[in-house]
Task: structure prediction
Amino acid sequence: MAEISIDELPQAPDAEVSIRDAFQIDLDATAPAFSQRTPHVPMIDPGYRFDPATTMTILSGFADNRRVVIQGRHGTGKSTHIEQVAARLNWPLIRLNLDSHISRIDLIGKDAIVLRDGKQVTEYREGILPWAYQRPVALVFDEYDAGRPDVMFVIQRVLEAEGRLTILDQNKVLLPHRSFRLFATANTIGLGDASGLYHGTQQLNQAQLDRWNIVARLDYLSEDEEVEVVLSKVPWMATEEGRRTVVQMVRTAEQTRTGFQAGDVSTLMSPRTVIAWADNYRVFRDLDYAFATAFLNRCDEAERPIVAEYYQRATGRTIEPDVKGPWRRVE
Ligand SMILES: Nc1ncnc2c1ncn2[C@@H]1O[C@H](COP(=O)(O)OP(=O)(O)O)[C@@H](O)[C@H]1O
Ligand SMILES: [Mg+2]
Result:
């Protein structure tokens, strides 16, 4: 499909996709979509497994302009779920990770000195928020519960503004584009981080949560589903033996998630880590070293023996916490 620029898109969706065909949900209904792709539309991941309830809430966000927050633990697929829905609706999407070093200035913009005809002039550089707000864009506040107070303050203003965004520094009032949408993802919600597992998360206050229409919770895929997802990414393992290995890999990941939940380890394996492990296995042809390079080596030294035990329980293989790989030097 040919791509056009985002400013050439129609004001509102001009096509419909079948929810059954696009999202594998047993429902005879359609969702509004754009007929053409633009550079900000995420790439389709054909192996993506949609969780029907989560997908329906995300679709209501797109179709009915509802503000949707998705809550769930690390690696449950919150961010990619929204992306994969957008990918199938051809809806441009921008993800803003509030966990990183995003500041208020990045969001709303700033005055910058530029050269114009050899003269220094001050010019306003638009931030990501006003840019997206005036375009058919789904803006995702990722790691919403980790946002810095100055950033949350700006977001609070957008959420409160009944259909307008005031850029105080610029004395400008902006109206949202008809197809602008807001989403957020969070590890914790409302309760702050009572568990101590998510450092750096802020307590979201009720006033702020009240501005979101829908809160959806997402959990990990079932073991069988995760095995399918991994196999879809590493088709070379789709033999009987390969599948058995993938089941053991997914079980290792499950052990780390249970351990993380119990506070025994501070890092866990997401489905992405399992896929990286399988990729490393293809490269090194050694399951243990592939595991070390995908996960074990990035664990805290004090926790590596615990992780080695999870590995042993799930795979039946023994691994040294400082595995060096299968290779030996020629003497
Ligand atoms: N349902 C799923 N189907 C396919 N892949 C998934 C699914 N859920 C998670 N993943 C994979 O797991 C990884 C982590 O997902 P991500 O969306 O970043 O999680 P989160 O935002 O919840 O931390 C990604 O590589 C994603 O492709
Ligand atoms: Mg995420």
In short: The two ends are 57 Å apart (CA to CA). The mean pLDDT is 90. Residues 78-79, 142, 185 surround magnesium ion (ligand 2) (CB under 6 Å).
